[in-house]
Amino acid sequence: MGLEEFKEKLNLYLKEINIKLDEKQIKQFYDYMNLLLEWNEKINLTAITEKNEIILKHFVDSLTISKHIKQGAYMIDVGTGAGFPGIPIKIARKDVEVVLMDSLNKRINFLNDVIEKLGLKKIETIHSRAEELGRNKNYREKFDVVTSRAVANLNTLSEYMLPFVKKGGVAICMKGSEVQEELEKAKKAISILGGTVGEVESFVLPNSDISRNVVMVKKVENTPAKYPRKAGTPAKEPLVLD
Asked: Per residue in 178-234, pLDDT tens?
């Protein structure tokens, strides 16, 4: 796919979610796609390798949350993987300062290559588990926005994310089509961790039948010092209370 065809497809989708990009930003997305496919031959970054699907399911999907991120926000993307949604947000929003965190160093190496080749500023990568970084005073409760996409169920995810959110900030949880039952089970855990469930936005990706849900969790109290628990515990023993 050449740059012009890419530009046409991306703009077609972006029009549906009211986002406009300049020529430089479109070229950055194009280069990002090609780097993703190049690196994906060496390390497993994505199962989505068809270019039109990358545009829709990775780039456009990531940008659907842009409207929920305030001007000049400091944001961390927990379990960023191949950089979603963190890098698309950074490309589209120069005002947002982004931290990309992932537990696999080979993914961090890929992200660093993308950042360098795209010339992105005000963005850093951190090789860490959420449970460990969430206890680091330099990152704990420092962020206006914490994002996560397809990482874990909300019960576990809330313990990964909420320790990073400062009071008054928000955790943006990007989920698939079924979320209501998961949300009900997670409400007590979210409350324990200092959060409260806000808006739940349900929508379909442009020109598709792909359903998405975005769960907004507001941080209303500081997270108790004992959370997050040690690495592996939130996944094995989620905070489920009857």
From this structure: 888 889 889 999 999 999 999 999 999 999 999 999 999 999 999 999 999 999 999
Distance (Å, whole) CA 45 – CA 102: 12
State how far the Cα of 30 lies from the Cα of 146, in Å rounded to an integer: 26
- pTM of the prediction? 0.95
Q: In what order do the strands lie in the sheet with 123-127?
A: 123-127, 97-102, 74-78, 143-149, 165-175, 211-219, 195-204
- Residue 200 burial by CB count (10 A; 0-12/13-18/19+): exposed, middle or buried? middle
Closest CA to 173 of 145, 208, 193, 206: 145
Q: Does residue 239 come out as left (phi exceeding 0), alpha (psi in the -120 to 50 range) or beta?
A: beta
| Pair of tokens at residue 137 | 């005073």
